[in-house]
Queue: 2 jobs
Job 1
Amino acid sequence: MLGSRRYDTQVGPTLGYSNPTPEPTQYTSPANLFLEEEVYQLGSCPGVRSLPPGAERDFLTLSWGPIVYRTSYAPETKRLLPVFLRCLNDAGEESEPNHVSSDLSEDSTDIKIAILLSLFPNIKQEELLEILVSCEGSVENASALLSAKDATLCTPVNAKRVASSSSLGVQTSLSSHILATAEDGSMKPIREVTSQKKPLPPRKGKTLHLYSPEDIAAYTPCTIIHNFLPAKEANALLVELLDESKHFTRDSFQLFNRTVQSPHTHAVYVSTPEEHRQQTSEYTYGGTYRSNVRQATPQLRVVSRQVQKVVNEEINKRIRDVYPDGKKLQYQSPKEWRPNAAFVNCYDGPNESVGYHSDELTYIGPHPVIGSLSLGVAREFRVRRIVPREEEAASTEPHDNNHTTSLPDYPQKRTGPAERIEAEGQISIHLPHNSLLVMHAEMQEEWKHSISPAQNISPHPISGNRRINITYRWYRDTLHPRFTPRCKCGEHTILRCAQRNQDTRGRYMWMCYAGFAPGKEGCSFFQWAEFDDDGDPVWAKKALADDAPALTDFSASQ
Ligand SMILES: O=C(O)CCC(=O)C(=O)O
Ligand SMILES: [Fe+2]
């Protein structure tokens, strides 16, 4: 990928180190793994050279056109180096060398932030972003503002405050010190001004790479929490699940006359033996009962409590800050989110993946929230918004594995995924070890997500080439399979949301799905699904009142 790119050092972006050697070097100790990724990438990027083993990475040069920044190799810069490299890669992909712009205002935000971070390593990334936005994206102006002698934030008192607060892990907001012009012409703190500005959407046909929690929350229906668990706990969970992954299996599904296997392995985890029984004999997925259901491990249970707490906090923030009038979405549950099932996926090596899909709503209901924890090798989580179109072949859409619903990638459609990415653009969210991604309530109905095959990966010290992903889900009592409609063949139906047809978009339907399970024929059963405002099927509340609760959440079962 990087290796095929040519950069013109006169006009394009370059990056280099002191004391370079042409040969990439293999590092083996865990402490150096991050370097290994960089060395690997640097080594395959023409014009950019890597360091010999043991050499001091004490300064770094970032250059773009006539601007050259030489800076100390701060941890923040180091963290952003892959971002910078990726941006170089994208820049190379998008422009002929002579068309590479030397105008910084046209560069990606990530490059600009990487440059600002290299210049101001003590200032937090989100602060830099705010300042950058207030300067209309001009790195020069942002940099001038930040370093101006008379700027309030750079007085010795404030500089000291920044340094000491960041060493404590609590950053004093610089943006409260800087004024910017608001839309009404008045001067207001930057934070207030920038929070009114809408981010730019991904460009057509391009992949927008996002790394910072602020960008991810602004551009997608997801929030991310990096370093979610204490490091030891994350590692213990990873070790436990790697051991479990010996029992993982691939799902099979039927695509026309072919039986296809999912390109990764997985298992489902539940709390109690009774739930195990139900999951293997009552709940169906893609027309079959699951065989790979397992009892939640001790670490999975402990972590589920932490996930539950943080996911609920993130849901409340999202409602307060993003949703219209500060109210939950229609059909979103107003109750506390309590995970009672965990799907654990293992991606062994760079080629394992999951295609674009929305998660099946059958048991988690409309507008569900999902907490997704990533462990081991970092991979790219790609998302794209579903754009409505005139023709919808809703009743004939296939499945890509037994717990997810692949909606768009269907041969009968006029456009395939590549054309849609071309038309709509996609966003790539970088998911490092120990990051929790919350997929919010609008995600499954309005967006699709995937784990794309990787060109290269950086081995993780514990898992090698493997990535483990846990999606914690809340199966709703009112959607227990004993309540949901059966189709004409007597099979359980699945719940889908119409996504592309302008007229029916957002409406829910129960459909037969047996045709997508190997060896089964489906029927044409179809019924619109009706929910109350809280996302419970209109008929289920009464049924549930006469019945025992269905599933136990992880925290209650300990
Ligand atoms: O591995 C991931 O991060 C996503 C997995 C996923 O989409 C799923 O399990 O439905
Ligand atoms: Fe999914």
Note: The pocket of fe (ii) ion (ligand 2) is lined by residues 357, 359, 404, 449 (CB under 6 Å).
Job 2
Amino acid sequence: MPCHRRSGTGRHLRARRPSETKAKTQDMTTAAQQNQLVALFRDATVIPVLTIERIQDAVPLARALVAGGVRTLEVTLRTPVAIEAARAMMAEVPEAAVGIGTILNPADFTRVEKLGVRFGISPGLTPDLLKAAADSALPFAPGIATASELMMALTHGFDVAKFFPAEQAGGIKGLRALGGPFPNVRFCPTGGVGEANAATWLAEPNVVAVGGSWLCPTAEIRAGNWAGITAICQRTLKALKGA
Ligand SMILES: O=C(O)C(=O)C[C@H](O)[C@H](O)COP(=O)(O)O
């Protein structure tokens, strides 16, 4: 599939900086990190976008998702307990591959890279955020909705991107149009993806995974309906297997 080719942006190597908790080493390139991310995303297929309001929900929620076969989790920085929630999930639910979403600026990135999470995601990008991410060892997928944003991401070596908001920013037709000039970019569409259309998105050759909140509705989290969340995950994965 053409989507497996790398864009070959030729990342320069950077020296280890002792001040960073998780330093980028001399033999590490952004391209290698992007390949790690592709492997993780492909394995995940679906990535729940989690908004955790109460710290005590973090571990049972992660367990419910893992029980439903969904192991790669995006904890968004939308709530004050997000960082603590990610820490608790990593400590108590080692089967989960925990990442952080809604990274909006370099300060967020710095907080996140110290956590030891598997990946970072943002809904959009800024030059400062891309620079922070390119200097870091943490695999990162910037959010893009336009060709210009994608070009900026590529300039910094990022050829795996979150396409956000996927449905609202052109849907499958929009993604296909972007695939023309950028055949080597791999995408994780998020925003408006759900049980009804996940398979359609995943059938696109340049889509490595889809993300969304449908796997973990706020109402179910608030109600502590962990069995219900497990059931949504199982139903979704079953439908995708049959697709
Ligand atoms: O918070 C973030 O970091 C985001 O980038 C946005 C989320 O990924 C989408 O809002 C999820 O969209 P829905 O699945 O339609 O709810």
Note: The longest strand covers residues 46-50.
